[in-house]
């Protein structure tokens, strides 16, 4: 990778590179080699203050919120073009930062980024930002106003993609943004900021200051921010929601999941297992919407377990730079220990390791875990109820369709899911019964980014993507109009 992209000396604030307030540096460690591959300043509260101040000034006094939607749309469309030219940089950095397999980087790290800016550029061209309402002799003008300064806090598994999920609709609404990338993956969002500045987003409208939890809390509680948009763990989301609740601050949360794939009794359970295993191993299992519980009819359970174990054992694990690799390392040593700890918990509770379960013997260096299949899992086990965030698939037997739906819904989460069947109409009926934010029938996923994404229960609050994603950055306002200002049309 270009050394300039991997070694940054400052933060992106107010349209320029800003020297850090402190002198500490944060080393970026490769999950594959355990060696330092990049560096960025360690942010302080003063750095956050400066970024929020720039965003506040850009919102209160700058041109961006005052542009017509069509003008903002032109800038967003240019941003999409610039971002397409920077996709290789974004993907390359995230391979180094997170250990994402290069074979998956185009889909996971860049596939939706430019498309999102294009989508919201088109959407706001025709979006109804104002409407007139008449009741008898009274008339009201209902306007959709930008919420203000947005604190966009993103995780390490897809840092630019998930920053774009927040930044594109926020900018489309007329907001300004402070992006806080995580310390594990602090570098890639600087490319997003550079691209947006090149496209004509004015100074202060987008700022990037990476940092850890304490810096994140300072941003969340900062009086200069109006809304927090967060993607991350449910535990962190609860903390953020509490802090925002104390301040009546707007908040949207995209949190964890333990999604279920229901394989009905008329489906080819063994034949489906390679695809279900592959889905669970995407980004080494570090995906909130992964279908990590597979619910199987008891009559087909044994052969499905055998097929899943064979599929998992055949998944290529190794150097994320190798195009043949499917499962790379986990993001950090602590994450590897967490995942292996859950495997041990499963065995202690009576589950069986059908495949994997340890460190790949041919990879003595790096934070790797073998693609793992757990059989004989009961839905009451911690491994079935808690988000592991690693390459671990739980196989749960059931008796009858009603029990399958009950098990799928017996979870504190409700983010994603799937139904597999030989009868698509039956699959839709079952899908309607599952309490989850999105669900696929026979692998037919919703057409993101045109539709909303988010979760029920502890999987989050609010929605990203689609028109709903734009509305989450808008405040409705009602204005009473005197007769002289009423529209001429009835």
Description of the structure:
With 490 residues, this protein is α/β, with parallel strands linked by helices. The protein has two domains: 3-255 and 459-478, 3-Layer(aba) Sandwich (Aldehyde Dehydrogenase, Chain A, domain 1), CATH 3.40.605.10; 260-441, Aldehyde Dehydrogenase, Chain A, domain 2 (3-Layer(aba) Sandwich). 39% of the residues lie in helices and 20% in strands. The protein contains 17 helices and 22 strands. It has helices spanning 3-6, 45-60, 69-85, 87-98, 105-110, 113-126, 159-173, 188-199, 213-221, 234-247, 269-281, 301-313, 333-348, 382-385, 401-409, 424-433, 466-471, and strands at 11-13, 16-18, 25-29, 36-41, 130-135, 138-146, 149-153, 176-180, 206-208, 227-231, 250-254, 260-263, 293-297, 352-355, 372-375, 392-398, 413-414, 417-420, 440-441, 456-457, 460-461, 474-481. The strands form six sheets. Strands 14-15-16-13-12-18-19 form a seven-stranded mixed β-sheet, with helices on both faces. It has a six-stranded mixed β-sheet with strand order 9-8-7-10-11-21, sandwiched between helices. Strands 5-6-22 form a three-stranded antiparallel β-sheet, with no helix packed on it. Strand 5 (130-135) and strand 6 form a beta hairpin. Residues 17-478 form the Aldehyde dehydrogenase domain.
């Amino acid at each position: 990778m270009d050394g300039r992209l991997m070694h940054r000396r400052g933060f992106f604030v107010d349209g320029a590179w800003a020297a850090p307030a402190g002198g500490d540096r944060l080393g970026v460690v490769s999950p594959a080699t355990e060696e330092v591959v990049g560096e960025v300043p360690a942010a302080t509260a003063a750095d956050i203050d400066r970024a929020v101040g720039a965003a506040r000034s850009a919102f209160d006094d700058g041109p961006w919120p005052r542009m017509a939607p069509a003008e903002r749309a032109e800038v967003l469309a240019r941003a999409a073009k610039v971002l397409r030219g920077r996709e290789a940089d974004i993907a390359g950095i995230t391979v180094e930062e997170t250990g994402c397999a290069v074979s998956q980087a185009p889909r996971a790290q860049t596939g939706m980024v430019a498309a999102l800016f294009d989508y919201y550029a088109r959407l706001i061209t025709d979006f109804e930002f104002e409407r007139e309402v008449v009741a008898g002799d009274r008339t009201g003008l209902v306007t959709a106003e930008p919420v203000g300064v947005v604190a966009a806090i993103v995780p390490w598994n897809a840092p630019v993609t998930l920053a774009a999920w927040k930044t594109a609709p926020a900018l489309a609404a007329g907001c300004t943004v402070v992006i806080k990338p995580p310390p594990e993956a602090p570098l890639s969002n600087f490319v997003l900021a550079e691209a947006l500045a090149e496209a004509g987003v004015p100074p202060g409208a987008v700022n990037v200051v990476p940092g850890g939890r304490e810096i994140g809390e300072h941003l969340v509680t900062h009086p200069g921010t109006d809304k927090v948009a967060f993607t991350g763990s449910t535990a962190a989301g609860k903390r953020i929601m509490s802090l925002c609740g104390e301040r009546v601050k707007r908040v949207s949360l995209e949190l964890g999941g333990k999604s279920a794939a229901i394989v009905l009794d008329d489906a080819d359970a063994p034949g489906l297992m390679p695809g279900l295993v592959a889905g669970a191993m995407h980004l080494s299992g570090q995906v909130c919407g992964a279908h990590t519980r597979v619910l199987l009819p008891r009559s087909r359970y044994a052969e499905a377990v055998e097929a899943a174990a064979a599929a998992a054992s055949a998944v290529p694990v190794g150097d994320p730079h190798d195009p043949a690799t499917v499962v790379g390392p986990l993001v950090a040593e602590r994450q590897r220990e967490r995942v292996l700890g859950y495997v041990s918990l499963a065995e202690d509770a009576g589950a069986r390791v059908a495949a994997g379960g340890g460190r790949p013997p041919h990879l003595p260096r790096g934070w790797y875990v073998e693609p793992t299949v757990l059989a004989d899992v009961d839905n009451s086990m911690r491994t079935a109820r808690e988000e592991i965030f690693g390459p671990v698939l739980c196989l749960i037997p059931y008796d009858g369709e009603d029990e399958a739906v009950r098990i799928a819904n017996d979870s504190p989460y409700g983010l994603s899911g799937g139904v597999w069947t030989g009868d698509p109409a039956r699959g839709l009926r079952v899908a309607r019964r599952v309490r989850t934010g999105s669900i696929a029938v026979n692998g037919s996923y919703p057409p993101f980014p045109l539709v909303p994404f988010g979760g029920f229960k502890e999987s989050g609050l609010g929605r990203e993507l689609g028109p709903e994603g734009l509305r989450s950055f808008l405040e409705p306002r009602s204005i009473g109009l005197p007769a002289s200002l009423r529209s001429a049309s009835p």
